[in-house]
Fold each of these.
Amino acid sequence: MNIQVRERPEQALPVVAKTAIADCDIHPARATPTELYPWLARRWHAHLETIGAPAYHGMMGGPPYPKAQPNASRRDAYPPEGGPQGSSLSFMQKQHLDPNNVALGVLNPLGTGQGLRNHELAAALCSAINDWQIAKWTSQDSRLKASIVVANEDGPTAAAEIRKRAGDKSFVQVLLLSRNTEPLGQRRYWPIYQAAEEAGLPVGIHAFGYGGNPVTASGWPSYYIEEMVGHSQCQQSALASLVLEGVFERFPKLDMIMIEAGFGWAPSLAWRLDKVWQRLRSEVPHLTRPPSEYISERVWWTTQPMEDPEKREHLFDVIDWIGWDRLLFATDYPHWDYDDPSRVLPAGVSAGNREAFYLNNALKLYGLA
Amino acid sequence: MTAPIAGGVDCDVHPAVPHLTSLLPYLNDYWRDQVTTRGMTDLISQSYPTYSPISSRPDWRPAQGKPGSNLDDMRAQALDRFRVSHAICNPLYGVQMVFSEDMADAFCRALNDWLAKEWLDREPRLRGSIVVSLQSVERAVAEIERCAQDTRFVQVLLLVMGDMPLGRRAYWPIYAAAERLGLAVGIHAGSAYHNPPTSVGWGSYHIEDYVAQAQAFQTQLTSLIVEGVFARHPGLKMVMLESGFTWLPPFLWRLHKFWRGLRMETPWVDRAPLEIVRSNIRFSLQPIDAPPDPVTLNRLFDHMQSDELLLFSTDYPHWQFEGDAVLPEGLSDDLVRKIMIDNPRATYPRLKVPVAKETMP
């Protein structure tokens, strides 16, 4: 990972040779800290410059577990005009969208203000981020689609933001993070699900976030790798909460997408839920079906970071159990653990499954087919 | 179902403390007085409510008292039924939940003495786990050293959810003591409830807590591996008890991938996580979180890439399987022998040691 990237000569890019793909997890960044100011009330400019934007952890700047790379991003992804990785549309087009023939790119802004301790500031920042996604990205490149970022700890305000954006075709999903002040199935978040269902939008749940709970059920670990691996366990608990609280019963048209948290664990979690539910279903009478059925019918999975078994057929077993029709390809551009679309699937996958994996599942789920 | 063979080792049975008063004979005057004066009643953990369906199979539930509290029942329902040579007792009394290190230590000592006297002395097939609390590592080590003199104790028992991740260096004296004394370290499902029982906060339901055990085991494995416990203690065996195991392969695929990307952060991890698990980590058989069809299960065994990882367990009296179907369908004779006999004996060196007391099996 810590390889010095050398200048390389410009190469002719074989755009036409590549099949179109959907990239369901792209992270656009702000070029400067003040880039959102045009959409943010003046009151908040002063607030950000004096007090900042405190999250449910102690660091004023930067994450509590230092990332592996600056901004957790590829060192070759700094735009030539300056600014952090992912902050330039023209460079994103040149480095990623054009050469990889990305036909659909779903934007998932992170570090937005979602989940801040000051819920009013969070709401203002989220609304600004949504305007910024339109102005800087989706209105400039029709391949890109935005996510409605919401201040999730304040359900009614988040729902109002979703209703404000409903019907705007720039947005294809509502974006939540996995780690919040409470498990995502809790009722405080239900206004979000109700508004998403009404708007006909799926809810994407991206790994990460700081809700104040340790990233393990046994307290805070020492290392960044533990946080990175731990996101997968957090996502499992978040999904278990969504299922067991009855969110899929209450909102029967709501689809959800698990983003950047792996998918290999899905069968095991579903089997465990079903087995325990057989014993304890009297505690959750609002569930009318085995938990695995809600998951298999209502949940989709982005692929990056692809689990990496020694034997590829083991991964294909897992995909068979989940279904080739449930996976959404994602690169995580410009982050350091980016998955290269030309390398994630080996030979031997049928043309139908390959097209579903790379493009068609996403077009269908996002209503763009 | 696959028929169990005679002579196996049941690595996870749960003798229940009938009531806190059962420990009074094993407490000193001060703590006996504290318990009675302060009106303490019992230490039942939310992880296993007495009357929860998971806490006891319906046909193993006694007419009165806690499931697992009667030795004759355990003999008839588990030890004789499955013709085991040994069964390892893992008491799940909530001694780890209290916040005072003095009180936790007193209860742990009493619990271990109670186990030796009321169970191990009375049934030669039983072996014990040394229950310690982590409020004080120093006291935990002292208790391990005290109990280890009795060679019927074969393991140190920790809960999967406590105050800090188990790989943290503060806990290493416990692992050093275990390795030195030939004890395995068992990590059992259950929480001290000093942190929320999921890594995304407090859920609403008991079922949620139980499902979350599997996620807790995953984060503990990450911690134990990346902190370097097995680089320091290469001979140490750790056993994940009532953990489930079908989550293991995809968990390792993820951990291995990030380890390759981030090993600069933990350069002392001298082997791939997968290799560390193969050599140092074991898993009890029950519960099996998988569909009942043998085809899927055999694919899962293939994903585990080793037939040495699983140790036979009934999880008595918890409700994990029906009738005598403790072994899933489709296991080969060879795998049955490994799971029931070879793997446990390789994991618990003290099973081979003649017992130091008069209770030779």
Amino acid sequence: MGKNLFLEDFEKIIIGINKTIQENRILLCQLDSVIGDGDHGMTMAKGFDSVMEKIEKTPPENISDLLKTAGNAIIVTIGGVAGPIFGTLFSELGRTISSDTESVDIKILSLMFSASLARIMKLGGARPGDKTMVDAFYPAVKSLEDSAAIGISIKEALRRMTEAAREGADSTKDMISSKGKSSYSGERSLGYQDAGANTVYFIMKAIYEEIE
Amino acid sequence: MRKLINIPKDIVNEVIDGIVAANKDILQRIGDFTIIARKDVPIKNKVAIVTGGGSGHEPLFSEYVGEGMADASANGQIFASPSGAIILEAIKAAEAGKGTLLVYNNYAGDVLNFEMAMEMARDEGMVVEQVVLNDDIASGTKDKRGNRRGTTATPIILKIAGAASKTGMDINSLKNLAQKAIDNSRSLGVSLSSCTLPETGMATFTLEEGKMEFGMGLHGEAGIKKVDIMTADDTTKIILDMLIEDLPFSKGDEVIVLVNGYGSTTKMEMYIITRKIHLYLAEKGISIYSTEVGEFCTSQEMAGISITLVKLDNELKKYYDMPCEAPGFKKF
């Protein structure tokens, strides 16, 4: 693995994320069933089924299109808040670069993720500490920004990013939900991890494993 | 959990098929989508009205589809917004060339998905506008009405917008009219028990025996104050005082009163409340033009009621008086 990520790397990443989400869908449902309605894993799996269907039918020709196509497939397939939020995660990554961007280095990757985080926080209105996917995504993106600033390898940067996402997802256990459907359970949400934050961790983990 | 259901994941599909079966002369399902539409869509020479949101609040939203009300409803899973794709299909089914007005409640998921559907429909060349209900005074301060959730004013707003669209009103005037009706609507409820999610059988929250909570949301969102259970009259007075102060409603105003049961509250209780509303508003010099009593927006088997007041002017009154025929709201 060199210093840049190309279209085929991103294709592998999307396939890897799909595999990870499908494999962990039961676990994600179990996490969601305690303080949500127990369908998060199935919903995400359904979203990624449609991502794979879309990109197999018309393979995107550049990185930007691939990420936008994946994001839009999730947005239109999944309802609730999860669809728009997780769809935007990908579509905004794609929207940050132009269609003639052939490869992405750690600096650009970091900018893409920063834009995605900003867009999601604006869209959903969640801040760190609200017990949402932001609690995993925010530290993960901050970690990537730090890595880009000190200029370490993409592989090491993604390892740290994944670790930050895992710690972030774990930390939701000690939070009281104040956004999204799980906020309906208020203090009862204490002691349980947020399902969406774990999905972020699985996405990061899949990205790292594909690049490794 | 005490619910007569089959496989949890089939609930929404089965409810939709049930509503259509019971109203087969006027309603249809659109393909395999979780969409209910009037049988005669698209209807020429009128702006289409599309509503929708999470399921589990029946008769909201699908029972408000019918002549003089909504043209179609897009339904999500239990307590979750429909996806943008489903909403877009509902727009396409209802749209007849004069544009579509989306009428829905202010919840994060609904706003995200309806706005995405609106953008997609506009990209395809359709004219789409929206109004978002925020009648629940418990979920935000007066100066931040944009934070407030939509609740039980829905049938009234759909009634007024539906009647106006039937007269051929253009989309911008219709949007302004619906917005005026929303601006004149205020609701507040009180809950006496929790509700259980049918997928998990778990209660959304716990409310101790003997307590009640003002302003609890339709999904168990925390309310504004928890107190020992009070009498129907005292409860009604507290709710009305808060509603009156919020708009504010003044002496000489004319209003529609809607008394809604959340799911397991009896009609007996609703009528006791209704009696007090009439007495108390008379004391305040507010006259009641029309009173609707029943289940309009439920939260599974939650116990409790909500009261909605809608201030009328001559224009709103005119459209409210026109006939409509939807399974959940009829006027002749």
Amino acid sequence: MASRFLITDPTSLWYLLILPAILLLYMVRSRYRRHRISSTMLWQSIRRDLESRQRLRLPPLSLLMLLEMMAVVVGTFALVRPALPAENREHLVILVDISSSMEATDVSPSRFALAQEQARQAIRRAKPGDLVSLVAMGPSPALAASGSDKTELLAALDHLQPGSGPADAIAALRLAESLIRSTGGRGEALLLSDGSFAPSVSIPRVDVPVAYSPIGVSADNQGITQLQVRPNLDGSGRWAAFARVASYADHPVQVRVTATADGLLVDSREVDLEAAASAELAFELPPDAKSFALALDGQDPLPADNQAEIQVGTGRPRKVLVVSNNAAPIQRVLQSLPELKVSTLKPADYVDEAGADVVVLDGFVPADLPRADLLIMNPPLGAPGLSTSPGASPVQVLRARAGDPLIDSVDLQSLRLGQPVRIDPPDWARSVVEGAVGPLILEGERAGRRIVLFDFDWSLYDLPKMQAFPLLLSNAMARLDPGSLPASIAPGETVLIRPMADSMAATVLLPDGARMEIDLRDGAQSFGETRQVGRYTVTWRGPRLGTVSRSFDVNVSSELVSNLQPGEISFQQGALPREASAPVAGLQLWPYFALAMLGLLCIEWAYFSRRG
Amino acid sequence: MFERLFRNRSRDGSAPRQARPSRHPEGGQLDEGLLGKLRNVTLVSQRRLTAGITGEHPSPRRSNALEFDDYRNYAPGDDLRRVDWNAYLRLGQLIVKLADAPERVALHILLDTSGSMAWGHPDKFSYARGLAAALAYVALSHMDSPSLLVLRDQECTRWSRQSSSSPAAMVRDISSLRPGGSTNLDAALAAFSTLGIQRGVAVLISDLLSPSGYQSGLERLSRMPLRPVVIQLLSPEELNPPLEGDVELVDSETGDAVQVSIDRAVLRRYRRRLQEWLEGIEVFCSRRGITYLRVETTQSMERLLLERLRREKVLR
């Protein structure tokens, strides 16, 4: 019987324990219904033969009890989800390449459209009962659909879109292996790709049959394969852009390259490219340029790689100026943080922020605050702009704002802090951590500056030797610049968007003008809707923050993408062991059991109603 | 309910009053049609003489009955229906037929009025009242003398006076009866046996569901110089109880309760016990010459009176 049908959820057999419960209920004597009759004379005479006085009795064989027990048995069989085994069931895993190179139009209408059509035909050819899995093969291959329902599979196929970064073929093939292995080892993988990933990877042995025929016919493509901006090393403060333009045609070509900065034309030139060759280009950017764009005017099968854009100035290290008589411990911590360029200065030598993005004022507060974001540590008595008074040492942490990023991962309970000077919280600040005599950590905005204030002497009680010290400094730096974004990423890559000040949400403007809201109440969120090539703008808004916008670019700048030469791949194919002990469920039987249970319940209800 | 039910000749020969049809629930229906048929039946007197010898004896009195054994000359005032017209045609002389005067049959209706009789669908007491009324009608239709005796508790009480019995009075007497209490059949029948009744037919209408039993009472009845007839009434619910599950059965007479868990096996046991009890009554009556009929209250009164009682020669 076990081989005749499969039980998908055997744990539901526990519901059969309801049967003895029903028996027990019928065995336990219920309350007697009073009934008047003409004479109990005859009943008295037979009562001696009856064991009506006993609390328990053999369960009476009644139709109602039988119906109830049958309903439980049938219902349990429905819950265990029996199914007929699917004999000789094949599993086809279709790997559809969704990288940007699949947008090439060397085949009509495009390589991706052709791959979609081949996938449709494969789905339609599948036998009833066969399993088909659809995998979107991008930088992170993902299962898009799986099952025997062709309608669902075709709908999932229609939702796939090309334009992501280079496909991770190895991960996709390993995924196909695991899918086929999970269903008994009978099946094959169908790789629908142009093989553009082939030159960069070595395909290992694959233990499933792989059917592959490269899609695409032409490599006649030119594209921007690299773009970056760097500050000039001459100390002028100006930036320069560097690009690589490649041609994969088998003949020399000439392309016009147009460079713009902030939308204004910077340069336009003809570039001669030899067959299968590239050219390095450099462009001087105007002062204070915020963005740089490059475009090729060639007519080739893949327009997506003919333009690229990049922000100027983002992604560069933030300048941090530490003003302290004891800067070494602070400098040591800050220099270990990425994207920070740290310089130090003694308070006596301080003049201004010297172009720093963040100024750390340790035991020193100038009369004119620097025009930068500030980390004020250990403010002195009588610090300008702050209401100060003598404090106390040591102080324990009494209260803290739960979940505040400034104290993220900091063990406040173990801290003993020295607070020789306490300040009254200014109007522009809010307390994050409080001690016995006043706030210990505050943060806020004032006159366009983000300010974090550590109202304690960090040099006391061995704080620099504790893990809390670098954590506090790192959290402060992140708080003072939460909006940092990468300058340029590839299609499909993710960007981490952090909350900023009192703004718990951010809006992302996509290249096509669409907007997406990102909820940041639970902290930083990964944003992965980066399939479109172009400029993405992230905007934070808050009552105190105001409006802050940052941008990043998605560019198809990759040789893997621009090289449209269809890749010939030979697979070393092994074989998965066919596991006979793992049958796959075919026709589901539970709906029939569920209907039968419903019928039994209806009969029981009718019988009970008639009986009254 | 029974007013003007009977149509009968009064003692002064005046026309009998029209009786309105009476309805009993379901089986105990008495309507005009049945009453008409009842006028054509009479009680059968199987008078006991001595030592249990039964049978009819000719009466020494002569009357103007249809059965005749002699003639005499017509005298003014004789019933013209008694004139032998064939003889007149032959002889040209009015001659009146003479015959044995049939003896008036004393009908004693013993009605069990215990609480158990007021039960069932149709209820037994309504049926019993209808049966008692029908038998009384038969008796009055043929100038027999019915008397109604009520069995209650340990007493047997005459509910109507035989000497002043009239159809209307009899109807009023019967319709005024109400069931209730408990009846000790043995004691009540023993009380009946002390009334000095020497002749007639005693019809006991009861369900015989007496906790004290029925044997000694019926034994006494069988030894009296009259013809005993026992009509046992039972309702469909007593024959096939529509009960299931855990029930507390309460006796309508005594109030005693018995808790029973009823299933099909228990019902089978009850029916077996019931059958044994009924067969015991039948055998008991048969051995003592008691005419015994078991009647379910769904049976039509007409069939009972005109078929079964005729078959048993209680009526003819």
Amino acid sequence: MDRRQFLEAIAGISSIVPALALLPATDPGAFAATLHARAQSTGALRTLNPAQDATLDAIAEMLLPQSDTVGARAAGVNRFIDLLLSESMLEADRERFLEGLAAIDARSQSLYGAALVAARRPDQEALIGALDAQLPLNAPTAAERAALERQPMTAERGYATLKQLVVFAYFTSEPVAKGLIDAPVIPGRYDGCVHV
Amino acid sequence: MSTSEPIEYDAIVVGSGISGGWAAKELTERGLRTLLLEAGPPIVPERDYVEHVQAYSLRYHGYGNLRQLHEQQPIQSQTGACDEWVSKFFVNDHDNPYRNDADKPFLWIRGRHVGGRSLMWGRQVYRWSDLDFEANARDGVAVDWPIRYADIAPWYSHVERFIGVSGQQERLAQLPDGEFIAPMQLNCAELKVRDAMQQHWGRERVLTIGRVAILTQPHLGRAACHYCGPCWRGCITRSYFSSNGVTLPAAQATGRLTLRPNSVVAEVLYDERRARASGVRVVDADSMRSLEFKARVIFLCASALESARILLNSKSGRFPAGLANSSGELGRNVMDHPFGAGAEGTLPGMEEHKTFGNRPNGFYVPRFRNVRDRHPKFIRGYGFQGGASREGWQRGARTRGFGAQFKQALLRDLGPWRVGIGGWGECLPRPDNFIALHPTLKDKWGVPALNIHCTFGPNEREILKDMQVTAAECLEAAGARDIRTFDEDYAPGLCIHEMGTARMGWDPKTSVLNRWNQAHEVPNLFVTDGACMTSSANQNPSITYMALTARACHYAVEQLKRREL
């Protein structure tokens, strides 16, 4: 299947792929896998609306993009985060997460006059770069967390939470944890000092 | 209950955790037909142990179902081990209620199943010394321990030889060496910290590998550790000590053990005419029927607060305030180790090195405060536990960067060496830290729930402060950067070392148990779990419970033979 055939084949689902422009066009195989994963995941979303999903997906793929190893999208990051939002997270945390997503979009709107997914790629990267530069390098203490939760949401805090979840979702996904991370389940011995 | 079940035994043991498992083994091996009553369900290792289950196989990849935890286990889930894999090993907080004053939180973390908390425990085992056993007498605190190190030392050996304790001999008076099997390795960063501390403090602050009840070599039919890592999720190779893997099989091998799960002990029955305990009343957790079992000797090993709760609920004309409680000390002197304070930092260098395998152990720094010197602000002291490691992808959430290179770096590289050191401090016994039966609240099985009153006092708070300073000093000496001190401000209980509610002592007027863990007032009643502790020391207490249990069983059987119980 070449790229053209593939695009025809997925014509029916292209409407639920708002970030098509972000997809790599050079590797049809990866492109197909990506779209299948995305079509499957979008169909199953229970908490994220299409706009929220697109924003999350765009940022996740910017953080951990498809390269010679799978990216966030192909690893099912958005579907997994939607599962956590729908079943696991406490309501207050879920609301904070969605507020954070909205705060990032609002920042994009005020800087570039467009929501994040509609902004130009360089603008998207500039915004994520600016938010990333503010990422706290230490996990907050319990007291710091409690104090933060009383403050209004900001794009910076929204980004920090989102990055944490995206990293967790990606690296605990089966294709990554099983396929890419070299950690034997039963090492059989412990050595306190081996060469990298 | 099947009608063929004999209802008269030589011994009844209440609780199948670390202490109860030992009581069952020792009593059956010494010839007693023993009924072991466990409040919770059986454990089937092939079904219940999940140490090799990978995160991606779980619905939430280890993130857990926080809504369900918040609803069903709001207290239990405050300990890290109550995770998506094994929250099933912790009780349901609704079925097992208790209360505390709103401004005095106490976290009571429990496992009700065969093996109890021996399945999820931390496996750290440290002998006490006379610095600990003499402490109350020396400081004029509470009452004197009725035993000294010489009384318990052979029983530590007895326990260590059977369970297998991995550790390094250090010849320190305050932390006696045990009968160790091969130690685990310190890693390169930990060796650097150890050497730096040696240079700065000589033999005063010694860093050694943790002493753990984990096999580094095959031992009495059990396999050596394979370093998969998460011991608290079970161990199919029985490489760490649990009742299920070690003491209960030994007890079963005698043919004299009857293990009865789902048996909630509500009270110990007292025969006023004979002035002896006659048996126990049990609520069958499945049928909710009330049953009675009789025995010549009774061992309470249900955990410090549970054993005291059972005794408080065992009221009679002779003991209106609870069995064996003429002293009024039953339920008092609750202790738990203050912990969660220390320091962490980054150790530069050694970037060409990493570790292989998941060592289920860290390093230990034996107590160095108030050993020879005298600290101006507090009595007693603390030990450090810690470890060094290089983070993998987990550092990604707190590492700046994004894009393909960021992703590849998280996949391929490791973060710098991070070292964390946290203190486990001694807690002083205070009569105003106490438990009492709640006037109306009952658990699912109709047993009165507890009111728990417990706070840390000024001595514990000073210890928590000092831990942070000295932990940072150790890191600084090792050349660490970005040193950050911390105090998590944990409520008492979270260390899961609760103890002291039926203390041992010389005087029946001021203690519940004598020097053999035998109730002063009820000779055939023994309490050998954490309830018996007269002080807390700062060492992880489990091996002391095991040794005291074995010692008390030996004594009880000798007394039974002489018909003196």
